[in-house]
């Protein structure tokens, strides 16, 4: 069989349990589980609220020895900026991000228009220094970053593939479940809805000699269902919904809320995601936007999203409901 005819359609959607039985866990899962358990235990003992932030897009390989893959859109901005805002508000953060996507604090320098070395200069003795024009803001950022790391408030965990993401999501949410309502799950990652099961995947690089390539992808099981009802059942769960068609945003967000039964969906449109979001709960719908003055001052919308979620989380911790 030529490699590029390998992609027969699956019959229906497999359930999450079958997915985990038929895929291998990532090789670093145990190491990250241990770190997550320690982190959760440490903060559980101190009563610090903990948020698990997922950030960045998942990758779906087309070949076992992967040369080609399908990626989901997400730079990781939403997750990285939100992590900073949660840290500033006293939360401990598990930042589960796509490898090499934006990270809290480092994001200001790693993915900017300047290259990293443009921030540096050589002094009269030929020693390297931070360029004076960047030093004040870099110092401010470094102080915040060091505070987070030195106080054990930030745990960085990465993923690459869809499978990597799903195994870690399941494992970390179950570890965090020991915190009960003090846990918040902030699911900002863009997770692939389609994948190629291992048994249908080409082993080697798909060759072009057989002409056009037709791909049929299976549907990814709906993992939010077990996440909400079993893995993370007591915590506050916030999922995001990204759309490009404005007519679909609120109906799809509401549909997710009804289907999975969690507390909050934040809807955002691809083109306006940095300035407008819609908060949707079982009983409410509210648009949150930055006005022109805020945009001119480079205010980030996460500085409004996160305090609002913290208010919801307090109600959740104290009363087990958002309506107080
Ligand atoms: O990173 P940026 O460039 O700043 O962009 C941020 C964003 C636009 C990606 C972000 O704000 C956003 O909208 N993320 C969710 C994108 C989306 O619609 O994801 P989804 O339809 O694949 O999933 C819906 C929700 O379920 C998400 O919260 C997702 O993280 C979660 N999910 C989905 C499937 C799955 N198997 N596991 C999940 O946790």
TrEMBL record:
Q: Give the signal peptide range.
A: none
Q: Which InterPro entries match?
A: CoaB-like_sf (IPR035929), DNA/pantothenate-metab_flavo_C (IPR007085)
What is the native source organism of this protein?
Answer: Umbelopsis ramanniana AG
**Where's the DNA/pantothenate metabolism flavoprotein C-terminal domain?**
51-105, 174-304
Give an example GO biological process: coenzyme A biosynthetic process
Write down what this protein is called: DNA/pantothenate metabolism flavoprotein C-terminal domain-containing protein
Q: Which GO terms describe its molecular function?
A: phosphopantothenate--cysteine ligase activity
The record's family statement is: Belongs to the PPC synthetase family.
